[in-house]
Amino acid sequence: MSTVSTDVARVLIAGSWRNATPQSTFHSTDPNHNSELPQAFPVSTWEDCEAALEAADKAAVELRRAPAAKIAEFLCLYADKIEAAKDTLVEAAYSETGLARSPRLADVELPRTSNQLRAAADSCRSGNWALPTIDTKAGIRSCYRPLGPVCVFGPNNFPFAFNSVAGGDFAAAIAAGNPVIGKANSSHPETTRLLAELAHEAVVETGLPEATVQLIYRTSHADGERLVSDPRVGATGYTGSRSAGLTLKSAADRAGKPIYLELSSVNPVVITPGALSERNESIVNDFVTSVLMGTGQFCTNPGMVLLVAGDETESFISAVKERFASTQSGTLLSPAVARSLSKSVSILTDLGADLLTGGGEPESDRCAFANTLMRIDGAKFLSDPEGFQTEAFGNASVLVVAKDIAELCDVIDHLEGNLTGCIYSKEDASEEADVDKISFVLEPKVGRILNDKMPTGVAVSAAMNHGGPYPATGHPGFTAVGVPASLLRFGKLTSFDNIRPMRLPALLQDSAPAAETMRLIDGQWRTGDVG
């Protein structure tokens, strides 16, 4: 961090790119060379937050009156602009994160971002996300309505798809009818600035309130807590470290403000003896590819593998160790990620995990850390389950070798909440009794359970749950991926009792607002008019 520069990026507040009122500035890092990038970004004081809140509060009132079709038009136009600016965005994101230009950024993440904006637009247009419900006999009608200004804190590992002014939380909040105050992640502020420029253009061209999208880059910890607990805030979406997330949650909880957190997850993968005896090499390939892809910087990275002692398990471990040791480590997102990974590995080895390969200190000329594989037995894990679940975010994983299925299930029973849990088993039914036991204890621990595939991919599907019990998220009943369910986090359920027809929101009037709108009318889900 440095003192305030004369050439500092501007913040977007109340529809205008303006100079911040910074207390200091910061720079992002080129992780490929571990060097500071030239553009300075402001650490805003509360004055900027106050101005953004005031503007968002006014915008929220206007958005409540805006037709759903107008909001959907904005989301689609914004998606178009993102695709048109693909080359510029990809280059900025590559410079700030080290993630591969292709296929990762250009061919996977950027299309995913524009597609989820369009999916949110479809849900906004139909209104199905709002669960419109009509009871003609009782004279009561209900649906979800906009909640108010939403603050979005984006993570470091998805500069497009989870960006605070373009990603899933942003799309859901806007589609639900709320303005967004985006807080850029310090790992990719320039990428976020470019996205915010496009979003602002789309806001102006579609005639939405100019404060529908606002952007600040960083605040003090105290101002961040004050921001999420402000009376004008409807809710907050946060993806990041457990410690920072829980600090924000504590502040929001004291004020009674919803905050939806994605924190930490080791994403256990269970591999049965039968699966290894049947297709050891294939599973080795699946695991190594998954844990080293993107240098392991996915929230669904398989950070823990649960095995049963035996010759096939030893063969699996030996093959994985060789692959880890012989594969060039990838670039990590930032110096902070490299330091955090090194610290987590040290914690695990100090507790007694055996270091099979990797470890050590981060590289100095780029943000990188050796591919790291650790091992413990089931009894050792059970002696300190909390400690051995320390998340090593990056290209590292822990193998837990239980003496039998009973001990393996005991290990699972001591796991914290996770985003995902996976079971690899023999293709025939000979292990079903054991798999039933494993599934029974694993399912309550995770938000998504998988068979015979690694958890890294998170499909943009209406059936997807990207959530899970604490500490994977702050609430097990919601998802950050999957329209329309993701929109519900940013809505307020409102019941209209004996309200005159002309005063009802469009979703609840007798005439259906759109041909595709599905409403629960007198106990039956259907399209069409009431009557």
Give a nutshell description of this structure.
With 531 residues, this protein is an alpha/beta fold. It is built from 14 helices and 24 strands. Strand 10, helix 6 and strand 11 form a beta-alpha-beta unit.
Write the layout of secondary structure elements.
Layout lengths: L10 E3 L2 E3 L3 E5 L2 E2 L4 E2 L4 E4 L1 H20 L2 H17 L1 H12 L3 H26 L6 E3 L4 E7 L3 E4 L14 H8 L4 E4 L5 H18 L6 E4 L1 E2 L1 H8 L6 E5 L2 H13 L4 E4 L5 E4 L1 H20 L11 E5 L2 H16 L8 H17 L2 E4 L14 E6 H6 L12 E7 L2 H9 L4 E7 L7 H11 L3 E6 L39 E7 L21 E3 L2 E3 L5
Parallel strand pairs: 6-12, 7-23, 9-10, 9-13, 10-11, 13-14, 15-16, 15-20, 16-19, 18-19, 20-21
Antiparallel strand pairs: 1-2, 3-6, 4-5, 7-8, 8-22, 17-18, 23-24
Helix pairs in contact: 2-4, 2-6, 3-4, 3-6, 4-5, 7-8, 9-10, 13-14
Word description of this protein:
The protein has 14 helices and 24 strands. The chain is of the alpha/beta class. Helix 2 crosses helix 6 and helix 4 packs parallel to helix 5. The chain is globular, with a radius of gyration of 24 Å.
Estimated share of beta-strand residues: 15-25%
Q: Can you give the helix content as a percent range?
A: 25-40%
- Strand order, largest beta sheet: 17-18-19-16-15-20-21
Distance between the termini: 64 Å
Main beta sheet: 7 strands, mixed
Low-pLDDT segments, ≥5 res: 1-5
- How many separate helices? 14
Q: Using DSSP, what is the number of strands?
A: 24
Instruction: Quote the average pLDDT.
Output: 96
Q: Please give the radius of gyration in angstroms.
A: 24 Å
Shape: globular
Pairing-aware structural class of the strands and helices? alpha/beta
